[in-house]
Amino acid sequence: MIVIKDQDPIYLEHQIDIKLDYLNHKYISGNKYRKLKYNLLEAKGLGFTKILTFGGAYSNHIAAVAAAGKEFGFDTIGIIRGEELVDKIESNSTLSFAKDQGMLFHFISRNVYREKTSATFLNDLKSRFGSFYLIPEGGTNSLAIKGCEEILRLEDSKYDYICCAVGTGGTISGLINSSQSHQHILGFPALKGDFLREDIRKFAHQENWSLITDYHFGGYGKIKPELIAFINQFKNRYHIPLDPIYTGKMMYGIFDLMDKGFFAEGSQILAIHTGGLQGISGVNKLLKRKNQPLIDI
Ligand SMILES: *Cc1c(COP(=O)(O)O)cnc(C)c1O
User: Fold this and answer.
1) What is the DSSP letter of 130?
2) Cα(31)–Cα(10) distance, rounded to whole angstroms?
3) pLDDT for 149-207, tens place per residue?
C-alpha cells in the first residue's frame, strides 16, 4: 500500500505559492515518488521481483528507485553511466546511498549508455540479470505520467500558472493532463534540448503549456555561482531548500520573470517543488573542490 501525503501550499509572496511535493516521502522524494507509484504497482501485479533502471552519478531517480525497492520488496539494478565510477561509489553520496538501500550496480561507458533503449542491449541485460521490470532513465513512461497527474488537486484550479522543473518531461506532462484548460503550465528545462517539446507532446493531452528555456544555466552538471547565491538567499528568506539541478533553476526563473513583468497583475502562480534535495551534497563536494561557495544545508 502506497500512501501519498499531500502538503498544503505555503504562502510566499502576493503572487506565488509553492507546493512542497517533496515531503511525500523521506527518501523516495517528490516527483520520483509520483513517477514510481503506478510502476511499482504494475511490477508487483505482473509478479516481477526485480527492477532495472538507468541513471547518472547524481541521479535523483537512481536514489529513489533504490529506496523504493527496499521499501516495497524489489531487488533493484542500476545501470550507471560512466565506467570510471566503479571505484568511486563510497565517495559519491547518491551511489553510496543507493548501494546501502541494496541496489546492485552495473557501470557502463557513455557510448554503451547511449544504447539504453535498443532491443539488443536490453536482451544482453536480460541474459545477465534475469527477468526484470524495466523503468526507463528518469522514470518517464505512461504509468509515471499517471502518477504525476495526481500532483494537482481540485483546489489548485484557482491558479493561473503552474510551474515545474523539466528533465525528461514526464512531470510536466502529468501536470498538463490534470490541469484545467484556463490554466497555463510553464516548464523550466534543467538542460538544453529541443527534443523536449516532442517528448512532452507524446504524453500531454492539452496545448496549455510552454517551455521557458532561458534558465538551464548550461545544463545538468554546470553549477553557476549566481544560482547557488539565489538558492541560499531563498532558503534564508523562506526556509525552503531548493536543489541546484531542478527546483533552484525553476524558482530563479520564476522570480526573474516576475521582475520582468511576465505575469499579468493579479495572476496567481503555483510552483511545484519536485524534490531533488539528495543531490545537494554531491554538488557541494564539487563546489568545494573548485573553491566556490557551497549550498547551505
Ligand atoms: C527528475 C526531476 C525533475 C524532472 O522531472 P521529469 O519528469 O524528468 O521532467 C524535476 N525536479 C526534480 C527535483 C527531479 O528530481
Assistant:
1) -
2) 18
3) 999 999 999 999 999 999 999 999 999 999 999 999 999 999 998 889 999 999 999 99
By the 8 A CB rule, do 246 and 167 touch? yes
181 counts as catalytic: no
Q: Which domains does the chain have, with CATH numbers?
A: 10-27+150-289 (3.40.50.1100), 32-139 (3.40.50.1100)
Q: Name the 3-class secondary structure at 197.
A: helix
**pTM of the predicted model as reported, rounded to 2 decimal places:** 0.94
Any ligand 1 atom below 6 A from CB of 165: yes
Q: Which helix (H) or strand (E) holds 32?
A: helix 31-45
Instruction: Name residue 219's amino acid.
Output: G
Mean pLDDT confidence for 116-143: 95
- Cβ-proximal residues to 111 (8 Å cutoff; 6+ apart), any chain: none
Report the separation in Å between the CA atom of 127 and the middle of ligand 1, taken as the mean of its atom positions: 31
Whole-number average pLDDT of the chain: 93
Site of grid cell 528518469:
138
